[in-house]
Structure formats: structure tokens, C-alpha cells
Write a structure and sequence with these properties.
about 400 residues, alpha+beta, Beta-Lactamase, Heat Shock Protein 90, five-stranded antiparallel beta sheet, five-stranded mixed beta sheet, rod-shaped, binds adenosine-5'-triphosphate, binds magnesium ion
């Protein structure tokens, strides 16, 4: 049994750090492992208080608990932080047990430990890394927040700039429309003059007749002439009204009859078309309806017809013709305005819808006409616009939505 015990002791001492103290904590035994880890020689340790390896970081209360436990004859277990002779730290998993004599009194204490320094160091290093990582993380988060804030600001500035540019563009478009409208008004004033020529001469005759009748005292004839004059004046004022309506932009989209739009345009241009000896050939079903801004479509067709009229000026007077057709196709209304003026040169075909492109003399063309037409058809009316050379002339084809039936479409 004594030999077995010796073997146990040897095995324990070889694999562990072992020390013994007397009841006051004075070292009475250390093994080689204890000397190795503490850096002290056996000689330096024996007879010294065990607190020689105490680490200054360890609070006093820890030792009180240790002493209270072992003095009450119980085993104490802890992971202790110790300091070696050269000041370095080591950690040991420690079990301290009191050894009792026959009477059950404490004879001495034995402490058996094993080195866990590398574990603890690793854990600490891990903890440090974790802290570093979380610091980095929070720094990163801050930087991301900062960058996001900068980006948001940039975005806001960009949005502001885009809105400003869009406003500028709208202003430019507005000016162009104004310019084109003024040009068209110039044309229409000529037409008003033409349409007034006839009633004005009628009024001249009325006044002359009334003068004669009043000399004769023919009251009945005076009344007749007066009524006639009133009718003539009403017709004249209707002409003005028609023109005014034509140039007033209508804000709401509506269903309307295509034939009405064409008739309106032709009545406005009646003067200049007949003066230019142009034969206008219309083939439109009365019931064809379309949806959108009626007046804008009139403006677009007016521009196309004026272009055709201009182009036809090079043609012999008895051959000048404009054909206007309309039909439904694939859920859209097609309106075709074709002339026989020779067509558009291939080199300029791609440019005619660009703003300010004109082949006319600066005094007669601004080059805005077809640009406005395209804007009206494609942007305002949600339609499409194309042109091709056909049958000895240009054919402008407008495609606009029908939107349902002609329910609610009323002739005005
Ligand atoms: N029916 C047509 N036949 C031949 N060329 C045409 C016809 N319509 C337009 N063009 C060509 O397209 C060009 C551009 O037309 P657009 O209506 O945009 O401008 P413009 O008629 O020259 O000037 P304005 O601004 O006074 O209308 C014209 O200058 C002309 O060369
Ligand atoms: Mg034009």
C-alpha cells in the first residue's frame, strides 16, 4: 500500500504543480514543476509565505475566501492569477486541500495545480480581438452612416439640380410654343383679313344703300338693310371668336370628332389655301373620334398643312393638292396629311422634327413647326408621329388613341 501511494505521489508530482504549506501558509514543500513555473528555486521557496507568488491584481477578498474555506477543512478550487519571480503572470487551475491528522486537526495544506496560462491568454487575446472588432465595427458603422449622409445630401442636391434643369427645359418649351403660336397667329391674321374682306364690302354696300333710302325716306328698306348689317357683323365677330377659341389652350383631355378638328383647321386656313389655289381633298368618316387635347391637335395639323402649302408653292397652280384621310387601325386613330409637292429630301428627313431646323428663308420659317407637332402628338396626346415620301409628295401620319367608344363625344 505504501509503495502504491508513492507511485500516486510521483504521478501527481510529475503531471502537476504541487506545493505544501503549514497551517500558517509557510511553504514546506514544492515540486520541480512549481519551481519551473514560478522561477524560484526550491531553496528560495521553502520557509517563505506562499503569498510569494501572489499577483498584485488579485483582490484581498479572494484570499479571505480561500482561508475561510480551507480552515474550515474544506477543499478550495479556483483559477488563480500568480506572478513569477521575473514579474510575468501565470494562471493555474488550483485545488487546495487541508491534510488532517489522526485527530482530525489540520496538519498542513497541499495545493495541486495545472498550468492554464496559454488558455487564459488565448481567451484574453480573443476577448481583446473581439473588442477591437466591435470597435472597428462601430467605426465602420459610423463611417457608413457618414457616407450615407453625404450620399443623401448629394442625392438631394442632384434632385434639386434635376428639378431646376427640368424647370429650365419646361421654360424653353413654353417659349418655343409661344414663338410657334405667334408665328401661327401671324398667318391667321392674314386669314381673318381675308375672311373679312367679303363682309366688309357687304357692309360698305349696306351703308351706301341706307344713305340712299334715308334720302328717300324708305323706312322699310332701312330696317331691312339694318337687319342685314347686324347679321354680317355677327358673322365677322364669329370669325374672331373661332380664331380665339383655336388659340386658347384647353386644359382637359376629351373625346372629340376628328372631322371637326380638320374642318376647324381648314376654316382657319381657308383664305390662304384658296389664295394658293390648293385643292384640299378630305376623306374622313364623320364618326371617327379620338381622345386628347383637341386644340393642340388642331395646332399640330395646322402646322403640317401650312408646311404642305409652303412646299406646294413650287408646283404649277393647277396641280396643287392636299389629301387628308383618317381611319381606325389597331386601336388607334390614324390621320394622314399628304401633299404632292415632291416630298422631303433624304438628307434632311432625319432632321425635320428637330427644333429650329428649317430649309426656309429666316424670315419665313423658324423651324419650330414640326418640333411642336411631334411634342403635341407624342407627349401631350400619347400618340406617335411619322413621315414618308409617297405619291410624289410628303405624307405625315399622326397616330393617337381612340379611348373607348364615342360615348360622351358631342359636336360643339
Ligand atoms: N410637306 C413638306 N414637304 C416638303 N418639305 C417639308 C414639308 N414639311 C416640312 N418640310 C421640311 O421640314 C422643315 C421643317 O419644318 P418645320 O415646320 O419644322 O419648320 P419650318 O416650316 O421650316 O418653319 P416654321 O417654324 O415656320 O414651321 C421645313 O423647313 C421643310 O424643309
Ligand atoms: Mg412649318
Amino acid at each position: 500500500m505504501g509503495q502504491e501511494l508513492n507511485q500516486y505521489k510521483k504521478a501527481i508530482e510529475q503531471s502537476n504543480i504541487v506545493s505544501k504549506t503549514d497551517i500558517d501558509g509557510i511553504i514546506t514543500f514544492v515540486n520541480d514543476e512549481f519551481c519551473k513555473i514560478s522561477g524560484y528555486s526550491e531553496k528560495e521557496l521553502i520557509g517563505k509565505n506562499h503569498n510569494i507568488v501572489r499577483h498584485p491584481d488579485v483582490p484581498k477578498s479572494d484570499f479571505k475566501l480561500l482561508w475561510d474555506t480551507i480552515l474550515s477543512k474544506k477543499t478550495f478550487k479556483t483559477t488563480a492569477k500568480n506572478m513569477s519571480k521575473n514579474g510575468s503572470t501565470f494562471y493555474v487551475n488550483t485545488t487546495i486541500a487541508p491534510i488532517l491528522d489522526k485527530n482530525g486537526d489540520i496538519q498542513e495544506f497541499i495545493a495541486i495545480r495545472y498550468d492554464v496560462t496559454s488558455n487564459i491568454m488565448l481567451t484574453e487575446a480573443l476577448k481583446n480581438k473581439e473588442e477591437e472588432l466591435s470597435l472597428l465595427n462601430s467605426m465602420l458603422e459610423k463611417r457608413i452612416q457618414e457616407q450615407t449622409r453625404k450620399l443623401r445630401m448629394l442625392n438631394q442636391n442632384l434632385e434639386k439640380r434635376i428639378t431646376k434643369e427640368a424647370e429650365k427645359n419646361r421654360e424653353k418649351d413654353r417659349l418655343m410654343f409661344q414663338q410657334a403660336r405667334l408665328a401661327a397667329m401671324g398667318e391667321t391674321i392674314g386669314n381673318i383679313a381675308h375672311q373679312w374682306r367679303q363682309p366688309l364690302s357687304e357692309l360698305g354696300i349696306v351703308i351706301f344703300t341706307m344713305k340712299k333710302c334715308s334720302a328717300k325716306g324708305d323706312k322699310k328698306e332701312i330696317q331691312k338693310q339694318y337687319d342685314h348689317a347686324k347679321k354680317v357683323i355677327a358673322r365677322m365677330s364669329k370669325t374672331i371668336e373661332d380664331f380665339r377659341n383655336f388659340f386658347n389652350p384647353v386644359k382637359d383631355k376629351n373625346n372629340f370628332f376628328v372631322k371637326d378638328v380638320i374642318d376647324e383647321v381648314l376654316s382657319i386656313l381657308e383664305g390662304s389655301l384658296s389664295k394658293a389655289a390648293i385643292n384640299v381633298n378630305i376623306k374622313i368618316d364623320e364618326d371617327i373620334t379620338a381622345y386628347g387635347y383637341k386644340n393642340e391637335l388642331s395646332q399640330a395639323i395646322l402646322n403640317i398643312v401650312i408646311n404642305a402649302k409652303d412646299a406646294l408653292s413650287h408646283k404649277p397652280a393647277d396641280e396643287r393638292e392636299i389629301k387628308i384621310n383618317s381611319k381606325y387601325e389597331d386601336g388607334f386613330v390614324l390621320i394622314s396629311i399628304a401633299d404632292n409637292a415632291g416630298g422631303i429630301d433624304n438628307e434632311v428627313m432625319d432632321k425635320i422634327f428637330e427644333p429650329y431646323f428649317t430649309t426656309k428663308h429666316a424670315s419665313s420659317g423658324t423651324g419650330l413647326g414640326l418640333y411642336i407637332v411631334k411634342m403635341i402628338i407624342e407627349n401631350s396626346m400619347n400618340g406617335a408621329m411619322c413621315v414618308k415620301n409617297q405619291d410624289g409628295g410628303a405624307n405625315f401620319i399622326i397616330k393617337i388613341p381612340i379611348q373607348g367608344s364615342n360615348n360622351g363625344t358631342e359636336r360643339t
